[in-house]
Amino acid sequence: MLDRMEETMRQTKWLAGNAFSIADIAVVPFIKRIDEEIAPDEMKPVRHPRVAEWWAKVQARPAFAKARIEGFQDEVAKI
Predict the structure, then answer these.
(1) Are the CB atoms for 50 and 5 separated by under 8 Å?
(2) First-to-last CA distance in the chain?
(3) pLDDT tens digits, one per residue of 19-77
(4) Quick one: how far is CA 48 from the chain centroid?
(5) Phi and psi of 78, rounded to 5°?
(6) For position 73, what pLDDT does the model report?
(7) Which H helix or E strand runs over 63?
(8) What is the C-alpha to C-alpha distance for residues 51 and 46, in angstroms, rounded to an integer?
(9) What is the pTM assigned to this prediction?
(10) C-beta of residue 5 within 8 angstroms of C-beta of residue 54
(11) Which residues pair with 14 in a beta bridge?
């Protein structure tokens, strides 16, 4: 998934073109999980620089903060 995102963003700023879209929103939970627990090293700029930059831009958006997306590990700890 990250390799395909990286390849796509060689040509565009966002996943479905040069504007933020539902495509970007749709992958947020998957990327958050990858970044948080599955393969955090894959999210580093040395491995996937465009994805890392994209992820930083997504997290900097005001709507991301308003969504209050908690960590997956936080949810497991509540159970």
Answers:
(1) yes
(2) 29
(3) 999 999 999 999 999 999 899 999 999 999 999 999 999 999 998 888 877 776 655 55
(4) 11
(5) -75, -25
(6) 63
(7) helix 62-67
(8) 10
(9) 0.84
(10) yes
(11) 17
